[in-house]
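Blinded run. Sample ID left blank on purpose so nobody reads anything into the name before looking at the predicted structure. Input follows.
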Amino acid sequence: MGCRRVPGRVLAFQLSCLLLLGPLPSPACPSACRCSSGEADCSQHGLREVPQSLSTNTSALWLGYNFIAVLGPGSFPPLPKLLLLSLPHNHLGLIHSRALLGLGALRDLDLSNNRLTVLSPDTFLPLTSLVMLNLGSNRLRELEPGLAEVLPQLQGLLLQDNPWVCSCSIRPLWRWLSHNREKVQEKTLLLCRAPEQLNNYPIMDLRNESFTQCQETSLTVQHYIAFFIIGPFCFMASIFFCTFMGSITVFCQHLRREPDSWRRPHICGGH
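Blinded prediction complete.
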């Protein structure tokens, strides 16, 4: 049988239709993730760092149940549309102050069930749109003053199951909680772990009288360093000043005695 010749224009048209009907290329998705509709699920893959080949259109990123221990500068690729970031059940113990740069649209951040012991307010400065923050089940003993204040849109904060130390250092957190009760979820689960006499005592039940032994001070670490430097300097300066003044006094007394010694030879010569 002879082959039927297909005109070039018809063939080009058919190829164009196949390309249009075929599947469009999908956005970047790391091999350890499952991606669909702007969401990237990278949970339970033994990851030790955040995947970098994520699509810039990612709106939700699930990274729970991995082995991520540190979020350093540049841990995340540019994700300007990310609204939800979930990092529970990792080994997270350190978040650098520049780790969350580029996530300004983030509204929901879950850092629960990790090993966080300290958090700097600077870490959350880029998150001006954050509405929900989950810090439950970590190793937080206190929160640095000003951490919640840098989140102007915050509506919900979870802090349960942390070993809170109810000493003077917890007073800023207690004060913020007292004025923002509607933002604190699971209030009854915020319990003191130390000192021993306050073990399992609800933080929200503390009163002003609980901090009577705490003195307000505006001194910073820089002030104390200055005192340690200025103190020895003033001490040495006082020694030099006293020595100098004593030398002048002795010298003046010596000058007063010298005229008497000059007169005595003249008196003797008169005889």
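Unblinding after everyone has recorded impressions. Confidence is low (pLDDT under 50) at residues 15-26, 267-271.
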